[in-house]
Design goal:
Helices cover 68% and strands 0% of the residues. By secondary structure, the protein is an all-alpha fold.
Length: 500
């Protein structure tokens, strides 16, 4: 029996990416039995578990030597620390729900990216190209439907458009997370791939990206704008003038977004109303600073182990500003939240994974510079900018907590992780498939069985968490002044009190 064909791996990941991203951006075409937020979370649980279940046995079968296994150790260490640190705390009845979320998410990213590399690099090139076209096509489709919403709003005399656009999300910030992932990829759609010379395709991509920039300006999504700016500058510094075509298209789409803003948010509304209502650009922290300070002090309470999973929701306020201020389900900073709940030891483990990514990136950069492969270099630039922008944005928002962002980000990160892996052999060669030994096949089956069991236990607790959340909603509406506190679910202020 031969190893799994990389094309099959590519097909499975691509199908999951297509359906998952379509569900996030165009929810109107799908049934929503539990509501958009909850349905996206369950889809994330399903897809992350599916990828881990498929990729782990695949890598067990392919494993050759210490170098191969060592590439998987940093993320394995990260997951182990998540589990060990969570075991120290039992304050939350659902502490293992989020541990499972991050464990499956990070393993799905790294293992899928590694599996896509295959033996010749073709599958990772196919998947990264697929993600580029999927991102650009999604931007255009969502942008075109946004214009439909815009026309209905304008025809009704509405000038405060931010109440209607962006649409399809319970919060405009959840849309902005997707924009952070996608906009750096849009220029690649006219620079690489089979449609790069099509004038119609170039126009459609420009319209889609320009409309998304308009929505960023309309909704004053500072996190997205600053994150994307950071990603673009960072990549320009790392790769230099070789990626100027991508930088030029990025600036072109930004300028087009500005033109759309002037036309759609200022000029046209001015024709139907005496006063145009525009969302003001805030220069303060929007109430985030007290949350940051609170999370910082939490991280020092039980240094370096943290206060336990979901302790942000259950702990007694430490600082007066947070105690007297508005409550949220998270501190709007993923790194401080992880440090507060899981400790700085986890942040150190996460740093090891980042260092591994930097090391791989630098090697791949040198490889592409030597080969003078402009297409692959542009792909590396776009995906590096996307991931860098998201990591920056995560410092001021719940990029790695909101289900839509995690679902989209998982596939962008998979493509990035695959791209930074050095290609084993020169593309174009046809390596002979190797056979699978019976002992290795037995190990792969046992590993798959264990993963399926763990996933089933996790999924069961996720579902129980959802049912308890819905059962407790009336209590929080009647007795708590904060309202919904989005976390794992759109309302996640748990554990439940024993007295109720």
């Amino acid at each position: 029996m031969h190893t799994i064909n990389p094309r099959i791996i590519y097909g499975l990941v691509a199908l999951a990416a297509f359906s998952g991203i379509l569900f996030v951006l165009l929810p109107a075409i799908f049934p929503k039995p539990l509501g958009g937020y909850a349905d996206q979370r369950l889809l994330l649980v399903l897809y992350s578990g599916f990828l881990v279940l498929i990729m782990t046995p695949t890598l067990v079968i392919r494993a050759k030597g210490w170098n191969f296994l060592s590439a998987l150790l940093p993320v394995t260490l990260l997951v182990a620390i998540f589990v060990v640190l969570a075991s120290f705390s039992s304050e939350s009845a659902y502490s293992w729900v989020e541990v499972g979320l991050y464990s499956f998410f990070f393993v799905a990213v790294v293992f899928s990216g590694k599996a896509l590399v295959g033996s010749d690099g073709r599958s990772k090139a196919r998947f990264s190209g697929f993600m580029v076209y999927l991102a650009a096509g999604s931007c255009f489709a969502y942008g075109a439907m946004t214009i439909n919403v815009y026309l209905f709003a304008i025809s009704d005399g509405v000038t405060n458009l931010v109440n209607y656009i962006p649409w399809g999300f319970v919060s405009i910030r959840y849309w902005s997370h997707i924009a952070t992932w996608f906009l750096p990829l849009a220029p690649l759609a006219v620079l690489v791939g089979p449609w790069q010379n099509s004038l119609l395709w170039q126009i459609l991509v420009a319209l889609g990206a320009g409309l998304w920039w308009w929505i960023i300006f309309l909704s004053t999504s500072r996190g997205s704008a600053l994150g994307i700016a950071f990603g673009v500058v960072f990549v320009g510094f790392l790769l230099g003038r070789r990626v100027w075509p991508w930088l030029k298209m990025s600036l072109l789409y930004l300028g087009l977004g500005g033109i759309f803003w002037l036309m759609l948010s200022v000029a046209i509304p001015s024709l139907i109303a005496d006063e145009v209502q525009l969302r003001s650009l805030k220069t303060d922290s929007s109430g985030r600073w007290p949350l940051f300070v609170e999370a910082w002090y939490m991280s020092l309470q039980n240094f370096p182990l943290g206060m336990g999973p979901q302790s942000w929701l259950t702990h007694e306020p430490i600082t007066e500003a947070y105690g007297n201020g508005k409550k949220f389900g998270h501190p709007h900073n993923m790194y401080l939240m992880w440090a507060a709940e899981y400790g700085w030891l986890l942040i150190a483990a996460l740093g090891v994974v980042v260092i591994q990514a930097i090391r791989n990136f630098w090697r791949r950069r040198a490889q592409l510079f030597e080969a003078e492969d402009s297409g692959q270099l542009l792909l590396l630039a776009g995906f590096t900018a996307s991931v860098s922008a998201a990591l920056f944005h995560a410092g001021v928002s719940a990029v790695f907590m909101a289900p839509g962002s995690m679902l989209v980000g998982m596939f962008v990160l998979i493509a990035f992780w695959a791209l930074i892996q050095p290609t084993p052999v020169v593309p174009g060669s046809r390596p002979q498939p190797s056979s699978i030994s019976k002992p290795r096949m037995v190990i792969a089956v046992l590993v798959a069985t264990a993963i399926l069991l763990v996933w089933a236990l996790w999924a069961n607790q996720v579902w129980q968490y959802y049912k308890d959340m819905r059962a407790d909603e009336p209590y929080y509406y009647d007795h708590e002044s904060e309202g919904r506190l989005p976390r794992f679910w759109f309302h996640g202020n748990f554990p439940r009190e024993v007295s109720r």
